[in-house]
Write a structure and sequence with these properties.
Blueprint (H helix, E strand, L loop, with lengths): L1 H9 L4 H8 L2 E2 L5 E4 L1 H4 L5 H9 L37 E2 L3 E2 L6 E10 L15 E11 L5 E11 L4 H4 L2 E4 L2 E3 L2 E7 L2 E3 L2 E3 L5 E3 L5 E3 L4 H8 L3 H7 L8 E11 L8 E7 L5 E6 L3 E5 L4 E7 L11 E7 L6 E5 L14 E10 H15 L1 H5 L3 H5 L3 H14 L16 H10 L2 E11 L4 E10 L16 E6 L8 E9 L4 E6 L11 E3 L6 E8 L2
Parallel strand pairs: 3-25, 5-26
Antiparallel strand pairs: 1-2, 2-18, 4-7, 5-6, 6-24, 7-23, 8-9, 8-24, 10-23, 11-14, 12-13, 15-20, 15-22, 16-19, 16-21, 17-20, 18-19, 25-29, 26-28, 27-29
Helix pairs in contact: 8-11, 11-12
Protein backbone atom coordinates (compact mmCIF):
# COMPACT_ATOMS: atom_id res chain seq x y z
CA UNK A 1 0.00 0.00 0.00
CA UNK A 2 3.02 2.27 -0.38
CA UNK A 3 1.55 4.91 -2.68
CA UNK A 4 -1.76 5.13 -0.85
CA UNK A 5 0.01 5.77 2.45
CA UNK A 6 2.09 8.50 0.82
CA UNK A 7 -1.06 10.08 -0.67
CA UNK A 8 -2.65 10.27 2.76
CA UNK A 9 0.43 11.77 4.38
CA UNK A 10 0.49 14.45 1.69
CA UNK A 11 -3.27 15.02 1.80
CA UNK A 12 -3.62 14.24 -1.89
CA UNK A 13 -6.33 11.60 -1.81
CA UNK A 14 -8.99 13.91 -3.22
CA UNK A 15 -9.87 12.22 -6.50
CA UNK A 16 -11.10 15.41 -8.16
CA UNK A 17 -7.86 17.19 -7.26
CA UNK A 18 -5.79 14.35 -8.63
CA UNK A 19 -7.64 14.19 -11.92
CA UNK A 20 -7.68 17.97 -12.36
CA UNK A 21 -3.97 18.36 -11.67
CA UNK A 22 -2.94 15.55 -13.97
CA UNK A 23 -4.89 16.47 -17.10
CA UNK A 24 -5.08 19.41 -19.50
CA UNK A 25 -8.22 21.48 -19.06
CA UNK A 26 -10.97 20.54 -21.50
CA UNK A 27 -13.64 22.87 -22.76
CA UNK A 28 -16.48 22.64 -25.21
CA UNK A 29 -15.69 21.06 -28.54
CA UNK A 30 -12.46 19.49 -27.28
CA UNK A 31 -10.75 22.84 -26.59
CA UNK A 32 -7.73 22.27 -24.34
CA UNK A 33 -5.59 24.54 -22.23
CA UNK A 34 -2.45 24.00 -20.16
CA UNK A 35 -0.04 25.94 -17.99
CA UNK A 36 3.42 24.55 -17.34
CA UNK A 37 3.54 22.36 -14.24
CA UNK A 38 6.21 24.60 -12.71
CA UNK A 39 3.63 27.37 -12.52
CA UNK A 40 0.27 25.70 -11.96
CA UNK A 41 1.37 23.19 -9.34
CA UNK A 42 2.83 25.69 -6.94
CA UNK A 43 -0.28 25.31 -4.76
CA UNK A 44 0.28 21.58 -4.37
CA UNK A 45 2.76 19.85 -2.10
CA UNK A 46 5.85 19.54 -4.27
CA UNK A 47 6.38 15.90 -3.33
CA UNK A 48 2.83 14.84 -4.06
CA UNK A 49 2.70 16.72 -7.33
CA UNK A 50 5.88 14.98 -8.39
CA UNK A 51 4.24 11.58 -8.06
CA UNK A 52 1.08 12.60 -9.83
CA UNK A 53 2.55 14.54 -12.70
CA UNK A 54 6.06 13.34 -13.32
CA UNK A 55 5.71 9.67 -12.55
CA UNK A 56 7.37 10.66 -9.43
CA UNK A 57 10.13 9.59 -7.26
CA UNK A 58 12.74 7.15 -8.41
CA UNK A 59 11.18 3.75 -8.77
CA UNK A 60 7.69 4.83 -7.72
CA UNK A 61 6.06 5.68 -11.01
CA UNK A 62 4.91 2.15 -11.79
CA UNK A 63 2.97 1.67 -8.58
CA UNK A 64 -0.72 2.09 -8.02
CA UNK A 65 -2.22 3.06 -4.69
CA UNK A 66 -2.65 -0.17 -2.83
CA UNK A 67 -0.19 -2.11 -4.97
CA UNK A 68 3.44 -3.08 -4.81
CA UNK A 69 5.61 -1.54 -7.49
CA UNK A 70 6.97 -4.77 -8.92
CA UNK A 71 4.57 -7.40 -7.73
CA UNK A 72 7.32 -8.95 -5.61
CA UNK A 73 5.92 -8.00 -2.22
CA UNK A 74 2.95 -5.95 -1.05
CA UNK A 75 2.97 -3.57 1.91
CA UNK A 76 6.78 -3.78 1.78
CA UNK A 77 6.67 -7.22 3.37
CA UNK A 78 9.68 -9.08 1.99
CA UNK A 79 9.74 -12.49 0.45
CA UNK A 80 12.66 -14.69 1.45
CA UNK A 81 14.12 -14.70 -2.05
CA UNK A 82 13.69 -11.14 -3.30
CA UNK A 83 13.60 -8.82 -0.30
CA UNK A 84 11.69 -5.58 0.15
CA UNK A 85 10.01 -3.55 -2.57
CA UNK A 86 11.10 0.01 -1.81
CA UNK A 87 9.36 3.25 -2.74
CA UNK A 88 12.57 4.67 -4.18
CA UNK A 89 14.63 2.08 -6.04
CA UNK A 90 18.34 2.76 -6.65
CA UNK A 91 19.05 -0.15 -8.99
CA UNK A 92 21.53 -3.01 -8.59
CA UNK A 93 25.29 -3.25 -8.74
CA UNK A 94 25.90 -4.81 -12.16
CA UNK A 95 28.70 -7.14 -13.32
CA UNK A 96 31.42 -6.16 -15.74
CA UNK A 97 30.99 -7.13 -19.39
CA UNK A 98 33.06 -6.83 -22.57
CA UNK A 99 32.35 -5.03 -25.82
CA UNK A 100 33.71 -8.10 -27.64
CA UNK A 101 32.57 -11.70 -27.55
CA UNK A 102 35.49 -13.95 -26.62
CA UNK A 103 36.20 -17.39 -25.19
CA UNK A 104 39.78 -16.45 -24.39
CA UNK A 105 39.11 -14.93 -20.97
CA UNK A 106 37.65 -16.07 -17.68
CA UNK A 107 36.88 -13.84 -14.72
CA UNK A 108 36.82 -13.81 -10.94
CA UNK A 109 34.91 -11.13 -9.06
CA UNK A 110 35.05 -9.79 -5.51
CA UNK A 111 32.74 -6.99 -4.36
CA UNK A 112 33.38 -5.16 -1.09
CA UNK A 113 30.75 -2.99 0.57
CA UNK A 114 32.27 -0.37 2.89
CA UNK A 115 29.86 1.05 5.48
CA UNK A 116 32.30 3.39 7.19
CA UNK A 117 30.39 5.88 9.37
CA UNK A 118 30.23 9.36 7.90
CA UNK A 119 31.55 8.14 4.57
CA UNK A 120 28.81 9.80 2.55
CA UNK A 121 30.28 10.85 -0.77
CA UNK A 122 29.78 14.60 -0.24
CA UNK A 123 31.19 14.50 3.29
CA UNK A 124 27.84 14.69 5.07
CA UNK A 125 28.27 13.00 8.46
CA UNK A 126 25.55 10.42 8.25
CA UNK A 127 25.31 6.69 7.63
CA UNK A 128 23.76 6.68 4.19
CA UNK A 129 24.97 4.64 1.27
CA UNK A 130 28.07 2.54 0.82
CA UNK A 131 31.37 2.75 -0.97
CA UNK A 132 31.57 -0.26 -3.27
CA UNK A 133 34.80 -1.70 -4.66
CA UNK A 134 33.88 -4.08 -7.49
CA UNK A 135 37.07 -5.97 -8.44
CA UNK A 136 37.73 -8.35 -11.32
CA UNK A 137 40.59 -10.62 -12.28
CA UNK A 138 40.56 -11.31 -16.01
CA UNK A 139 42.53 -14.45 -16.85
CA UNK A 140 43.81 -15.15 -20.35
CA UNK A 141 43.60 -18.89 -21.01
CA UNK A 142 45.17 -18.64 -24.48
CA UNK A 143 48.73 -18.28 -25.76
CA UNK A 144 48.20 -14.88 -27.36
CA UNK A 145 47.58 -11.42 -25.94
CA UNK A 146 43.94 -10.37 -25.74
CA UNK A 147 42.95 -6.72 -26.11
CA UNK A 148 39.35 -6.01 -25.10
CA UNK A 149 37.14 -3.15 -23.98
CA UNK A 150 35.85 -3.67 -20.47
CA UNK A 151 32.40 -2.13 -19.99
CA UNK A 152 31.24 -1.39 -16.45
CA UNK A 153 27.50 -0.61 -16.18
CA UNK A 154 25.96 1.51 -13.45
CA UNK A 155 22.57 3.10 -12.82
CA UNK A 156 22.65 6.87 -12.98
CA UNK A 157 21.45 10.15 -14.43
CA UNK A 158 23.15 13.27 -15.71
CA UNK A 159 22.03 15.22 -12.65
CA UNK A 160 24.07 12.97 -10.33
CA UNK A 161 26.77 11.87 -12.72
CA UNK A 162 29.63 13.47 -10.81
CA UNK A 163 28.82 11.42 -7.69
CA UNK A 164 27.72 8.23 -9.43
CA UNK A 165 30.43 7.68 -12.03
CA UNK A 166 32.98 5.07 -10.85
CA UNK A 167 36.72 5.52 -10.78
CA UNK A 168 38.80 2.67 -12.19
CA UNK A 169 42.25 1.17 -11.62
CA UNK A 170 44.00 -1.43 -13.76
CA UNK A 171 46.64 -3.45 -11.88
CA UNK A 172 46.58 -0.77 -9.18
CA UNK A 173 47.16 2.15 -11.54
CA UNK A 174 44.45 4.75 -12.11
CA UNK A 175 42.99 4.43 -15.59
CA UNK A 176 40.85 6.62 -17.79
CA UNK A 177 37.48 5.41 -18.97
CA UNK A 178 35.17 6.61 -21.72
CA UNK A 179 31.53 7.08 -20.85
CA UNK A 180 28.73 5.53 -22.92
CA UNK A 181 25.12 6.31 -22.13
CA UNK A 182 22.01 4.21 -22.60
CA UNK A 183 18.54 5.62 -23.17
CA UNK A 184 15.84 6.17 -20.56
CA UNK A 185 15.53 2.94 -18.59
CA UNK A 186 11.86 3.23 -17.66
CA UNK A 187 8.52 3.46 -19.36
CA UNK A 188 5.25 5.36 -19.12
CA UNK A 189 1.85 4.88 -17.55
CA UNK A 190 -1.38 6.73 -16.99
CA UNK A 191 -2.85 8.53 -14.02
CA UNK A 192 -4.36 6.47 -11.20
CA UNK A 193 -8.01 7.35 -10.71
CA UNK A 194 -10.67 6.10 -8.35
CA UNK A 195 -12.88 3.35 -9.73
CA UNK A 196 -15.69 4.47 -7.40
CA UNK A 197 -15.51 1.25 -5.43
CA UNK A 198 -12.55 1.95 -3.18
CA UNK A 199 -9.93 0.94 -5.70
CA UNK A 200 -7.84 2.63 -8.39
CA UNK A 201 -7.53 2.15 -12.13
CA UNK A 202 -5.25 3.65 -14.77
CA UNK A 203 -6.85 6.11 -17.16
CA UNK A 204 -5.12 4.58 -20.18
CA UNK A 205 -2.86 7.54 -20.94
CA UNK A 206 0.93 7.79 -20.95
CA UNK A 207 1.16 10.99 -18.92
CA UNK A 208 3.39 9.63 -16.15
CA UNK A 209 6.89 8.23 -16.05
CA UNK A 210 7.22 4.67 -14.78
CA UNK A 211 10.75 4.29 -13.44
CA UNK A 212 12.30 0.86 -12.86
CA UNK A 213 11.34 -0.26 -9.38
CA UNK A 214 12.97 -3.67 -9.09
CA UNK A 215 15.99 -5.54 -10.36
CA UNK A 216 13.61 -7.49 -12.61
CA UNK A 217 12.89 -4.30 -14.55
CA UNK A 218 16.60 -4.05 -15.27
CA UNK A 219 16.68 -7.71 -16.21
CA UNK A 220 14.00 -7.10 -18.82
CA UNK A 221 15.95 -4.07 -20.06
CA UNK A 222 19.39 -5.65 -20.39
CA UNK A 223 19.19 -9.38 -20.83
CA UNK A 224 18.75 -9.54 -24.62
CA UNK A 225 21.71 -7.19 -25.26
CA UNK A 226 19.85 -4.67 -27.40
CA UNK A 227 20.10 -1.88 -24.84
CA UNK A 228 23.90 -2.15 -24.74
CA UNK A 229 24.11 -2.39 -28.53
CA UNK A 230 22.17 0.84 -28.84
CA UNK A 231 24.33 2.56 -26.21
CA UNK A 232 27.48 1.64 -28.16
CA UNK A 233 25.95 2.61 -31.50
CA UNK A 234 25.39 5.97 -33.13
CA UNK A 235 22.69 8.29 -31.85
CA UNK A 236 19.80 9.53 -34.00
CA UNK A 237 20.35 12.08 -36.75
CA UNK A 238 17.61 14.72 -36.84
CA UNK A 239 18.55 16.74 -39.90
CA UNK A 240 14.87 17.51 -40.38
CA UNK A 241 14.16 20.97 -41.87
CA UNK A 242 12.36 23.28 -39.45
CA UNK A 243 11.39 26.93 -39.27
CA UNK A 244 12.30 28.74 -36.06
CA UNK A 245 10.63 31.81 -34.59
CA UNK A 246 12.72 33.36 -31.83
CA UNK A 247 11.27 35.95 -29.44
CA UNK A 248 13.61 38.59 -27.94
CA UNK A 249 13.72 42.23 -26.71
CA UNK A 250 10.78 41.85 -24.34
CA UNK A 251 8.84 44.85 -23.02
CA UNK A 252 5.90 45.05 -20.60
CA UNK A 253 4.31 47.83 -18.49
CA UNK A 254 5.42 48.15 -14.87
CA UNK A 255 3.09 46.93 -12.17
CA UNK A 256 2.19 43.64 -13.82
CA UNK A 257 4.43 40.99 -12.30
CA UNK A 258 2.78 38.22 -14.35
CA UNK A 259 2.54 40.12 -17.63
CA UNK A 260 2.18 37.57 -20.40
CA UNK A 261 2.56 37.55 -24.14
CA UNK A 262 0.68 35.07 -26.29
CA UNK A 263 1.11 34.13 -29.93
CA UNK A 264 -1.92 32.73 -31.75
CA UNK A 265 -2.05 30.92 -35.07
CA UNK A 266 -3.96 28.22 -36.93
CA UNK A 267 -2.29 25.23 -38.59
CA UNK A 268 -3.24 22.22 -40.68
CA UNK A 269 -2.49 19.51 -38.12
CA UNK A 270 -1.88 16.95 -40.86
CA UNK A 271 0.90 19.04 -42.35
CA UNK A 272 2.36 21.07 -39.46
CA UNK A 273 3.60 20.48 -35.93
CA UNK A 274 4.76 23.24 -33.57
CA UNK A 275 7.17 22.73 -30.67
CA UNK A 276 8.05 25.33 -28.04
CA UNK A 277 10.91 26.20 -25.73
CA UNK A 278 10.68 28.74 -22.91
CA UNK A 279 6.89 29.01 -23.12
CA UNK A 280 4.78 28.68 -19.96
CA UNK A 281 1.30 27.93 -21.24
CA UNK A 282 -0.80 27.01 -24.18
CA UNK A 283 -4.28 26.37 -25.51
CA UNK A 284 -5.51 24.64 -28.62
CA UNK A 285 -8.60 23.49 -30.43
CA UNK A 286 -8.04 20.10 -32.09
CA UNK A 287 -11.13 20.62 -34.20
CA UNK A 288 -9.90 23.74 -36.00
CA UNK A 289 -6.11 23.63 -35.59
CA UNK A 290 -6.11 26.93 -33.67
CA UNK A 291 -3.28 27.21 -31.12
CA UNK A 292 -2.10 29.71 -28.56
CA UNK A 293 1.35 29.60 -26.92
CA UNK A 294 2.21 32.04 -24.14
CA UNK A 295 5.05 33.06 -21.83
CA UNK A 296 5.52 35.34 -18.86
CA UNK A 297 7.42 38.37 -20.09
CA UNK A 298 10.96 38.19 -18.64
CA UNK A 299 11.44 40.92 -16.05
CA UNK A 300 14.93 40.20 -14.72
CA UNK A 301 13.51 38.92 -11.45
CA UNK A 302 11.62 35.78 -12.35
CA UNK A 303 13.80 32.69 -12.56
CA UNK A 304 13.03 31.27 -15.98
CA UNK A 305 14.42 30.91 -19.47
CA UNK A 306 14.90 34.08 -21.46
CA UNK A 307 15.35 32.13 -24.68
CA UNK A 308 11.96 31.53 -26.24
CA UNK A 309 11.44 29.66 -29.49
CA UNK A 310 8.66 28.21 -31.57
CA UNK A 311 9.90 25.44 -33.85
CA UNK A 312 7.73 24.58 -36.83
CA UNK A 313 8.01 21.19 -38.50
CA UNK A 314 6.31 20.83 -41.90
CA UNK A 315 4.43 23.64 -43.56
CA UNK A 316 5.18 27.03 -42.05
CA UNK A 317 2.71 29.11 -40.05
CA UNK A 318 1.00 31.44 -42.52
CA UNK A 319 0.30 34.24 -40.04
CA UNK A 320 0.23 34.82 -36.32
CA UNK A 321 -1.07 37.38 -33.82
CA UNK A 322 0.79 38.64 -30.73
CA UNK A 323 -1.26 39.76 -27.75
CA UNK A 324 -0.33 40.87 -24.24
CA UNK A 325 -2.28 39.82 -21.14
CA UNK A 326 -2.25 40.79 -17.47
CA UNK A 327 -1.42 37.26 -16.37
CA UNK A 328 -0.81 33.71 -17.59
CA UNK A 329 -4.51 32.91 -17.84
CA UNK A 330 -4.65 34.79 -21.16
CA UNK A 331 -8.39 35.30 -20.68
CA UNK A 332 -10.49 37.55 -22.88
CA UNK A 333 -11.03 40.87 -21.16
CA UNK A 334 -7.60 40.68 -19.51
CA UNK A 335 -5.65 42.04 -22.48
CA UNK A 336 -2.73 44.33 -21.67
CA UNK A 337 -1.35 47.02 -23.95
CA UNK A 338 2.37 47.81 -24.08
CA UNK A 339 3.58 44.20 -24.24
CA UNK A 340 5.99 43.76 -27.14
CA UNK A 341 8.95 41.76 -28.45
CA UNK A 342 11.07 41.22 -31.55
CA UNK A 343 10.35 38.08 -33.57
CA UNK A 344 13.10 36.63 -35.77
CA UNK A 345 12.37 33.90 -38.31
CA UNK A 346 14.98 31.53 -39.73
CA UNK A 347 15.16 28.15 -41.45
CA UNK A 348 17.44 25.44 -40.06
CA UNK A 349 17.33 21.81 -38.92
CA UNK A 350 16.00 20.17 -35.79
CA UNK A 351 19.52 18.99 -34.95
CA UNK A 352 20.79 22.58 -34.94
CA UNK A 353 17.91 23.68 -32.74
CA UNK A 354 18.53 20.90 -30.22
CA UNK A 355 22.25 21.75 -30.13
CA UNK A 356 21.38 25.36 -29.32
CA UNK A 357 18.77 24.54 -26.69
CA UNK A 358 20.80 21.86 -24.93
CA UNK A 359 23.71 24.27 -24.54
CA UNK A 360 21.35 26.99 -23.35
CA UNK A 361 19.79 24.62 -20.83
CA UNK A 362 23.10 23.43 -19.39
CA UNK A 363 24.53 26.94 -19.18
CA UNK A 364 21.57 28.78 -17.69
CA UNK A 365 19.00 26.41 -16.25
CA UNK A 366 20.10 22.90 -15.25
CA UNK A 367 22.12 23.89 -12.21
CA UNK A 368 19.47 25.69 -10.22
CA UNK A 369 16.66 23.43 -11.40
CA UNK A 370 18.32 20.35 -9.92
CA UNK A 371 20.45 21.97 -7.23
CA UNK A 372 23.65 21.04 -9.05
CA UNK A 373 26.90 22.84 -8.37
CA UNK A 374 28.68 24.45 -11.32
CA UNK A 375 31.23 21.67 -11.32
CA UNK A 376 28.53 19.01 -11.47
CA UNK A 377 26.89 20.68 -14.46
CA UNK A 378 30.20 21.04 -16.28
CA UNK A 379 30.88 17.34 -15.63
CA UNK A 380 27.96 16.43 -17.89
CA UNK A 381 29.45 15.53 -21.30
CA UNK A 382 27.59 17.71 -23.79
CA UNK A 383 27.69 15.20 -26.64
CA UNK A 384 26.18 12.46 -24.49
CA UNK A 385 23.50 14.73 -23.05
CA UNK A 386 22.65 16.03 -26.50
CA UNK A 387 22.39 12.47 -27.79
CA UNK A 388 20.07 11.51 -24.90
CA UNK A 389 17.77 14.39 -25.82
CA UNK A 390 17.67 13.23 -29.43
CA UNK A 391 16.91 9.66 -28.38
CA UNK A 392 14.04 10.82 -26.18
CA UNK A 393 12.67 12.86 -29.08
CA UNK A 394 12.77 9.84 -31.40
CA UNK A 395 11.65 7.16 -28.96
CA UNK A 396 8.85 8.91 -27.13
CA UNK A 397 8.77 12.59 -28.05
CA UNK A 398 7.33 14.79 -30.81
CA UNK A 399 9.06 13.02 -33.72
CA UNK A 400 8.29 9.51 -32.46
CA UNK A 401 5.94 7.23 -34.36
CA UNK A 402 4.18 6.66 -31.03
CA UNK A 403 4.31 9.97 -29.15
CA UNK A 404 3.65 9.63 -25.44
CA UNK A 405 0.90 11.81 -24.00
CA UNK A 406 3.47 13.31 -21.66
CA UNK A 407 5.20 15.01 -24.59
CA UNK A 408 2.25 15.50 -26.95
CA UNK A 409 2.08 19.27 -26.44
CA UNK A 410 5.55 19.65 -27.98
CA UNK A 411 7.31 21.32 -25.05
CA UNK A 412 10.99 20.87 -25.80
CA UNK A 413 11.67 22.09 -22.25
CA UNK A 414 10.21 18.86 -20.92
CA UNK A 415 12.21 16.67 -23.29
CA UNK A 416 15.50 18.39 -22.42
CA UNK A 417 14.85 18.58 -18.68
CA UNK A 418 13.80 14.96 -18.40
CA UNK A 419 16.71 13.71 -20.47
CA UNK A 420 18.83 15.37 -17.79
CA UNK A 421 17.14 13.66 -14.85
CA UNK A 422 15.82 10.34 -16.16
CA UNK A 423 17.47 7.19 -14.90
CA UNK A 424 19.45 5.15 -17.37
CA UNK A 425 22.25 2.62 -17.46
CA UNK A 426 25.63 4.17 -18.22
CA UNK A 427 28.79 2.27 -19.16
CA UNK A 428 32.38 3.13 -18.32
CA UNK A 429 34.52 1.73 -21.14
CA UNK A 430 38.15 0.85 -20.36
CA UNK A 431 40.54 -0.75 -22.91
CA UNK A 432 42.53 -3.60 -21.40
CA UNK A 433 45.22 -5.93 -22.74
CA UNK A 434 45.51 -9.28 -20.96
CA UNK A 435 48.88 -10.93 -21.73
CA UNK A 436 49.07 -14.49 -23.03
CA UNK A 437 48.62 -16.91 -20.13
CA UNK A 438 48.47 -13.96 -17.71
CA UNK A 439 45.90 -11.86 -15.91
CA UNK A 440 44.81 -8.27 -15.29
CA UNK A 441 43.12 -6.87 -12.19
CA UNK A 442 40.47 -4.19 -12.68
CA UNK A 443 38.71 -2.43 -9.82
CA UNK A 444 35.77 -0.05 -10.10
CA UNK A 445 35.13 2.14 -7.08
CA UNK A 446 31.69 3.72 -6.87
CA UNK A 447 29.37 5.28 -4.37
CA UNK A 448 26.08 3.41 -4.10
CA UNK A 449 23.07 5.11 -2.60
CA UNK A 450 20.42 2.80 -1.17
CA UNK A 451 16.83 2.05 -2.05
CA UNK A 452 14.51 3.36 0.67
CA UNK A 453 11.02 4.31 1.79
CA UNK A 454 10.14 7.97 2.23
CA UNK A 455 10.19 9.33 5.76
CA UNK A 456 6.67 10.78 5.43
CA UNK A 457 5.12 7.53 4.19
CA UNK A 458 4.39 5.87 7.50
CA UNK A 459 6.10 2.72 6.28
CA UNK A 460 7.60 0.37 8.84
CA UNK A 461 10.66 0.30 6.60
CA UNK A 462 11.54 3.99 6.97
CA UNK A 463 15.25 4.08 7.75
CA UNK A 464 15.91 0.76 6.07
CA UNK A 465 18.57 0.88 3.33
CA UNK A 466 18.42 -1.65 0.53
CA UNK A 467 21.17 -2.75 -1.86
CA UNK A 468 20.76 -5.06 -4.84
CA UNK A 469 23.48 -7.05 -6.56
CA UNK A 470 23.33 -9.17 -9.72
CA UNK A 471 25.87 -11.81 -10.65
CA UNK A 472 25.58 -12.11 -14.41
CA UNK A 473 22.84 -9.84 -15.79
CA UNK A 474 24.00 -8.28 -19.06
CA UNK A 475 27.50 -9.80 -18.84
CA UNK A 476 29.22 -11.97 -21.42
CA UNK A 477 32.11 -12.89 -19.10
CA UNK A 478 32.70 -16.49 -18.05
CA UNK A 479 32.86 -16.18 -14.26
CA UNK A 480 34.64 -18.92 -12.35
CA UNK A 481 34.05 -17.39 -8.90
CA UNK A 482 32.31 -14.46 -7.24
CA UNK A 483 32.78 -13.32 -3.65
CA UNK A 484 31.31 -10.56 -1.51
CA UNK A 485 32.63 -8.85 1.61
CA UNK A 486 31.66 -6.20 4.16
CA UNK A 487 34.03 -3.74 5.82
CA UNK A 488 33.40 -1.21 8.60
CA UNK A 489 30.16 -3.00 9.41
CA UNK A 490 30.27 -2.22 13.13
CA UNK A 491 27.85 0.69 12.68
CA UNK A 492 25.10 -1.25 10.88
CA UNK A 493 22.57 -3.96 11.59
CA UNK A 494 21.60 -6.39 8.84
CA UNK A 495 17.83 -6.70 8.71
CA UNK A 496 17.33 -8.90 5.63
CA UNK A 497 19.68 -10.51 3.13
CA UNK A 498 20.44 -13.61 1.10
CA UNK A 499 24.24 -13.18 0.98
CA UNK A 500 24.93 -15.25 4.08
CA UNK A 501 26.78 -12.61 6.14
CA UNK A 502 26.62 -13.09 9.92
CA UNK A 503 28.01 -10.10 11.80
CA UNK A 504 27.51 -11.65 15.21
CA UNK A 505 29.69 -14.59 14.23
CA UNK A 506 32.18 -12.45 12.35
CA UNK A 507 31.21 -13.77 8.90
CA UNK A 508 31.90 -10.78 6.66
CA UNK A 509 33.17 -12.63 3.57
CA UNK A 510 31.10 -15.09 1.54
CA UNK A 511 31.36 -17.01 -1.71
CA UNK A 512 28.36 -16.53 -3.96
CA UNK A 513 26.47 -19.11 -5.96
CA UNK A 514 26.91 -18.29 -9.63
CA UNK A 515 23.50 -19.80 -10.36
CA UNK A 516 21.85 -17.19 -8.12
CA UNK A 517 21.10 -14.18 -10.29
CA UNK A 518 20.18 -11.71 -7.57
CA UNK A 519 21.46 -10.96 -4.07
CA UNK A 520 20.13 -8.32 -1.71
CA UNK A 521 21.27 -6.68 1.51
CA UNK A 522 19.07 -4.52 3.75
CA UNK A 523 20.59 -2.69 6.70
CA UNK A 524 19.80 -0.14 9.38
CA UNK A 525 22.41 2.14 10.92
CA UNK A 526 22.91 1.55 14.64
CA UNK A 527 21.74 4.34 16.89
Amino acid sequence: MKAERLFRVLGLVDDDLIEEAASPAKGRGGFRKWIAAAACLAVLCAVGAGWLITGGFRGMGASAPGESGSGIASDNEPLSVEGTTFMSYAGPVFPLTLAEETNALTAERETTWDFAPGAYHDGTPRQWGASVADSYTLVNITESDQTVTALYPFVGSFTELEAQCPTVTVDGQEAEGTLCVGSYAGGFQGVWQSDGQGGYVLDGTTLNLAHPDSWMDYKALLEDGRYLDAALGDGPVLDIPVTVYEFTDFQAPEGYDAATQAVEFTIDQEKTAVYSYGFNGGAWDPGTGWQQRSYFVPNGQRREKDRKLLVVLGEDIEEYVLQGYKDGGCDRGEELEGVSCTVTRRETTLDEVLDLLCRDYLETYAGWQYGMEDGAVSAVPFALFRRAVGELMVQYGPVSEAVKDRYADGRLDDIISEAMSQERVLYLAVPVTVPAGGQVNITFLLWKEPSFDFGCSGSENVGLQGYDFVTRLGSNLAFTEQRAALTNAESIQIQRQNFGFDLEKGVTEVTLELETEHYYLEIRPKE
